[in-house]
Amino acid sequence: MERHPPPVREAVIQMILHVARQFPIIRFDAAMTLAKKHYQRLWFPEPGTGGAIPSRAEHGLTKEQFDNSMPNEFWRQVVDRVAEEVPDTLLLAEAFWLMEGYFVRTLGMHRVYNSAFMNMLRDEDNSKYRSVMKNTLEFDPRIMKRYVNFMNNPDERTAVDQFGKGDKYFGICTMLATVPGLPMFGHGQIEGYTEKYGMEYRRAYWDETPDQDLVERHKREIFPLLHKRYLFAGVENFLLYDFFTPEGHVNEDVFAYSNRVGDERGLVLHHNRYAQTRGWVRTSVAYALETGEDEKRLVQRSLGEGLGLRNDGTSFTIFRDQANGLEYIRSNRELHEKGLYAELSAYKYHVFLDFRQVQDSASHPYGQLAAYLDGRGVPSIDEALTEVLLQPLHGPFRELVNPEMVERLMEGASDDKESQEALADEVKQEMVRMLREIQSLTDGGSEPEALAAEIRRELEVVWDLPTIEERLPLPDAIGDYLRAGPSGVPDVGLNEDLQTWATLFSWLFSHSLGKMADAGSMEAPAASAEISRSWQDEWLLGKITASAMEDIGLDEGSAWWAVSTIKVLTTHQRWFELVNATGGGAHRVLRSWLEDDEVQRFLQVNRHQHVLWFNDEAYEQLLWWMMVVATVTIAADPERASSEAIAVCYSVIERLGEAKEASNYRVERLLEATRDGFNGSHQDKAVA
Questions:
Q1: pTM of the predicted model, to two decimals?
Q2: Cα separation of 298 and 300, whole Å?
């Protein structure tokens, strides 16, 4: 003991103070070795204990003798002197051997490395680590934010070696980012490096490259949480919860905790075990609440209280899971009384954020929505609420666009007249049912029966398209074009392609719905096109159509491409009204199309080297579809139906096709080629 008399201790403290005046942070390596408990264990073990170093047994001292020789804790003196003389210094201690709590509770160290986080969670000693957290909360919750949590450091195996790269790693890394305290990422942890990087290294010895998949997953799942450290770092509103199984037991393998800052809330669940579990997050563990000077009591909170939610029967809470992007809705009363039910597979986790409270009402039936979802998550609660409100409208629309109906309608083109009549009557009845719902939603003045009859006439024309010459005396070229489409262009033509027919029928049942907006729309159908188009988004008809397209076998991209086609055709269903009787007006028609952003996306218009380009096949598809809708619309109109009107439309389509050949797929040249008096050879010379 003579080697450490008070003058030496004072000299060491003075050295620390000197360093503190130079640097704002000081890290003490292996600080636990200078704590009285471990100093005696190492150098002056109590008689009969043997100690950590057997050769030191002959120097043993009783506890009383040791305390007389070293009455004060060295680190307590350091902390007090630094606080007095250099108060802006942060003291960070490495204190293993389960000394972390002692260093912050008794010795007052500002921050201490929390090796228990790494070791216990790695080994899945979950009940032990929950005990560490519970004991800390019962003593003083403020201690939690003084821990430095980590998954590896220069003295330990790398994080990828200890935790792997899968769900176990990311579940614990999520805890690292969301528990109070200071998260510390080790060298190479995010990149997935496997070389143990010691403090004595001047450079890495292994030639490793970052694991980009691992880095990207950090970017998706961990980095957004680190941006919200203001929500998770504090302890004023931190609560740790028990996870009760249906049998009434607490599953110690589940870590569930919440935190709050103002009106912002976060709730984290992590299952740190290779197993399945389910249960309720209902009641917090006890924590110390200060009630006065040097007085405190242990209290518990319900989940609803922990999240600061209203407790009444008409309030609901919406929240989003950072892990999967889905939104959920729960009754506030349920969150207060029952808690939150969750099912967790091996190493899975949830991070619930973006909490917002809403009120159930006739216009916003959140209670009905919660019952309808029955706990399921959805991409958007607002969109799901719209679906609930529009269920009476969506029902008949689904009946019209589902795969079974599309196949029946396809077969109807070759059915006998009697069968067609029966099927057309069925379609009309569904249309009337849907249009009445629209009338109720919009207080529209148009008659559902009249519009349904119009759509029925259009359906009959659609059935006649493969043999259109039998309905109207049209040139063979028009019939051939409608049946086969442009040569070599996929996804067009009236063949047995289910996608084409499904797109056509879906357009048929949605393109004129805007006529229900008011009684005058029936007389001014062009004015209703924009309304019809907006309702496809507002009333989620496009989403239903896409789902039906996937049900008939299309992939997601193709399904939404069909929806995009329907939207373009709905907006420009009256394009032929820009054409004069002699077939002029191709430039006006093309310009009106290209001014539409959706048409530009359909044509895949893009800029390269200061030139706007369009896609050849998409342009040919657009021309074919525009010819189809013009033919259906004109032929179904008793006052307009004539072969001459359709022939004029076809002449414009031909003109637009010729313009493509002269354009070299440049938008500017395409427009120029449709102008009256355009001379292709002259244009080529001018461009050259």
A1: 0.78
A2: 7
Instruction: Find where tokens 């109720």 sit.
Output: 440
> Any idea of the CA torsion for 372, 375, 378, 383, to the nearest 10 degrees?
40
User: In Å, how far from its chain's centre is CA 299?
Assistant: 36
pLDDT digits (tens, 9 = 90+) for 1-59: 344 457 888 888 999 999 999 999 998 888 888 888 888 788 888 887 766 777 787 78
Q: What is the pLDDT of residues 580-603, one digit of tens each?
A: 877 789 999 999 999 999 999 999
In the chain, what are the domains? 6-200+210-231 (3.20.20.80), 239-379 (2.60.40.1180), 392-687 (no CATH)
Parallel/antiparallel/unpaired status of strands 606-608 and 295-299: unpaired
Q: Give the confidence band of 196 by pLDDT, cuts at 50, 70, 90.
A: confident
364-399 burial, b for 16+ CB within 10 Å, e for fewer? bebeebbeebeeebbeebeebbbbbbbeebbebbbb
Mean pLDDT value of segment 351-362: 96
User: How many Å apart are CA 533 and CA 598, to the nearest integer?
Assistant: 11
The distance in angstroms from the start CA to the end CA of the chain is 97
Alpha carbon distances (Å) from 349 to 159, 170, 224, 226, 315: 19, 9, 15, 16, 26
- Return mean pLDDT, the chain: 90
State how far the Cα of 440 lies from the Cα of 448, in Å rounded to an integer: 11
Please give the Cα distance from 672 to 135 (Å, whole number): 79
Q: pLDDT, tens digit, for every residue of 103-126?
A: 877 888 888 888 889 999 999 999
